[in-house]
Amino acid sequence: MRLLTTTLAVLLSLAAGADAETLVGVAAPLSGPSAILGKQIEAGASLAAQMNNLTIKAVDDACTADGGAAAAREFAADKVNVVVGFLCTDAIEAALPILKDAGIPVITVGVRTESLTDRRAKTGWPVYRLGPRGDDERNAIASRLTQLWRNDLFAIVDDGTIYGRELAETFRAAAEQAALKPVFVDTFRPQLDNQIGLVGRLKKAGATKVFAGGDGDDIAIMGRDAAQLNAGMTFAGGENLRTPPDAVPYAVGTLMTALPEWAEAADPKVVQAFGAKTIVPDGYTLPAYAAVEVAKAAVADAASSGKPLAEALTGHDFATAIGTIRFDAKGDLSQNPFRVFRFDGTRFVPLEVK
After folding, report:
1. What is the reported pTM?
2. Which of 15, 86, 150, 206 could be joined to 108 by an S-S link, Cβ 3.0–4.6 Å?
3. CB contact at 8 A, 322 and 290
């Protein structure tokens, strides 16, 4: 019994010591045009550190290659356990070779560049992405709308931009693979006062569901014009529908594929903790908070098991304020974070999929 008690005391002591000694680096643009976003990261990481008995070291990476490299050298000199943050590709790509040599893993909350993790086998960079990849939005649109509209007559249109066309083409290819064919495919002229002509052609083709690769103003106008023609159409778009349209409101029922509003989806106690400090937990605030939670859990796991920190970060579930986080072998999230939302006349709410 004495041996068991002594062993338990040692383990508890080690766990407490691991927390107290854990130093988390925070890399963010704290100056320049992206400073407002960097301050969100700093605020989220700071509160997470306070609530989890950790120490952080925040460094301005300036969203530049020089800034990222300088921040990495500072983190290496201070022997931080893990770095969280980074919003810009130039900064993180300059930092990673230095952090790799120092054996310091990185959890980025904002860099979507696909090659960052796709090149892991070649670069060996210890990077983990707590946020979406660049292709997550279009892949989510493709998979979820293919499922939702499998029994509907649907159309696919885009505004001719690279962004709009990539969304539309990815959806079209996924539909084709699922043996589904749109009744109408076209490119529309954006930023018009009305889209009556396009809606008329969609109605003639029999479309009841329409994906539009374009901006929110165009999709709002399509919804208005469809209602005027009694076309009975539901329009859908990507995450840029988060920005309210300038003049015409979205039609009720408009679908949007986007990231959740983390303040609405997060642990209410954590949201209240931010409120108590008069901090609005928007943008990257809650993802940064969650990144610190992941860092703490991984450091503790590595300390207790004796395995490398990179191994502790891979293939394990981490309970965080914004839900369960799990990284795959490349360092990407194991599940696509994009969800489908429906406009209820006032705001976008999560779509209940039957």
Report:
1. 0.90
2. 86
3. yes
